[in-house]
Write a structure and sequence with these properties.
Strand order of the largest sheet: 1-2
Oligomer: single chain
Strand content: under 5%
Helix content: over 70%
Largest sheet: 2 strands, antiparallel
Structural class: mainly alpha
Radius of gyration: 21 Å
Length: 430
């Protein structure tokens, strides 16, 4: 990989500021939404006297609405200035958290979670992905995306401990208030720093765009920022659906890991603080893991890393199953999670850019979020159901390990099919 420059046409490239903004959305919004939610399982279930399967309805409502939002949020980002869309989405999540802190019944949490779902569709990894796609070319896209995505690993080291401490000292209601306050930081970042496209800052070329590599379309030169096929065209290819299914199954396992890790290791160790610390340590490894996955995807090519790294996640789940008998495996899983845990937020989106181009990347990235949303509903529900029926998570972890092997096969197949069909549509996958 060639040296990455900080300047374009002799001046500092604003894309690096945008990359920082993408990092911050992951550092704050992604961690608050995805990684801190599991901290509320035990205290809310105990106070309301409900089962984990009942409480999981909040996640189901949230994710179902995220699915609906993911169908159109990419088009909204394409139509309106990014700063206003992002700020508006985050503001809604903050208001919902404040209202959730006053909830007195499960149905109130379910309704507010559903409202949050529409906003979360545009306030977690999607804006970070769009920022990278808009501002960085194909030669460095993997590296740039990995830098943005590793914000979730860095944030996990901070916010899980902070929110867990607030819950321990002041209760789960103050935990929601704290999450609203933390999330509000992104509103300021969006309004002050976010700019939609390089052309808005006077840049005609992006870092990572090959010299003289603009695409031909209908006999005219087309900037790589606009090269590719449309979302509707992508839906007609087998490549898209194999990739979509792979992304969905990845999130089945990943969502179960995020939702049930702390409850599982609380059961195993009898110590909620130790379980939260172990969870934070595992997530913290992605500071390095996401960076390495992105860089290696640029160096080795995404078609190879997309097949290799899901298998690392499979090993994580095998270690989870074994940890109930021997806690040594709780430590063994951490280095494998460093790479496997980076898969859901990097591989599907790098594949989307590689397979279909940047022309309607935001739209298709939103649809890939939809795949993840389906997985987010299924994963925690399956794990909670198995626990409620058997009193243990072991069977769930074995199922998810098998699914990760299936994901590798799906990604392998997605790189082999539909090439000629996509080329006839006017785009040659890199």
């Amino acid at each position: 990989m060639k040296k990455i420059s900080f300047k374009v046409d002799g001046r500092f490239y604003y894309g690096w500021i945008m990359l920082l903004c993408g990092f911050m959305t992951m550092f704050i919004c992604y961690v608050i939404k995805v990684n801190c939610s599991s901290l509320f399982y035990n205290p809310i279930c105990e106070e309301f006297g409900i089962s984990r399967t009942a409480y999981i309805q909040t996640n189901t409502a949230l994710t179902a609405c995220m699915m609906i939002g993911s169908l159109f949020i990419g088009k909204i980002y394409k139509k309106f200035p990014m700063k206003f869309v992002l700020a508006g989405c985050v503001a809604v999540t903050c208001i919902c958290y404040l209202l959730m802190s006053r909830a007195t019944a499960l149905w109130q949490l379910i309704v507010l979670s559903a409202i949050q779902g529409f906003a979360w569709a545009g306030a977690t990894n999607l804006p970070a992905n769009i920022m990278v796609s808009n501002w960085f070319g194909p030669k460095v896209k993997g590296t740039a995306l990995s830098i943005a995505m590793l914000g979730s690993g860095a944030g996990a080291l901070v916010w899980i401990r902070v929110i867990n401490s607030v819950i321990a000292k002041s209760g789960w209601r103050m935990g929601y208030v704290a999450m609203a306050g933390v999330n509000a930081i992104v509103i300021v970042i969006a309004l002050v720093l976010v700019v939609s496209m390089p052309s808005d800052k006077g840049f005609e070329k992006r870092i990572g765009d090959p010299d003289g590599a603009d695409e031909e379309e209908n006999g005219k030169k087309v900037s790589l920022q606009n090269a590719g096929i449309t979302g509707q065209q992508a839906l007609k290819t087998a490549r898209w659906w194999l990739q979509f299914l792979g992304g969905m199954l990845t999130m089945v396992g990943a969502a179960a890991f995020s939702a049930q890790f702390v409850p599982y290791f609380t059961e195993v160790t009898g110590d909620a603080t130790k379980a939260a610390s172990l969870y934070s340590s595992a997530l913290g490894t992605m500071i390095l893991g996401k960076f390495l996955v992105g860089v290696l995807s640029d160096v080795l090519h995404i078609k190879r890393t997309s097949v290799i790294f899901p298998l690392f996640y499979g090993v994580v789940f095998i270690c989870m199953a074994l940890a109930s008998k021997n806690m040594t495996f709780a430590t063994v899983l951490i280095p494998f999670y460093m790479f496997g845990g980076a898969v859901p937020s990097t591989i599907p989106f790098l594949l989307t850019a590689r397979n279909f181009g940047d022309k309607e990347y935001g739209v298709m990235a939103g649809w890939m979020n939809l795949a993840g949303n389906i997985g987010q509903i299924l994963g925690p529900t399956i794990a909670a159901f198995i626990f409620d029926k058997t009193g243990a998570y072991t069977t769930a972890w074995i199922i998810f390990a098998i699914l990760m092997a299936v994901v590798s096969v799906l990604y392998l197949l997605s790189g082999l099919v539909s090439r000629k069909q996509i080329e006839k549509m006017g785009y040659k996958p890199v």
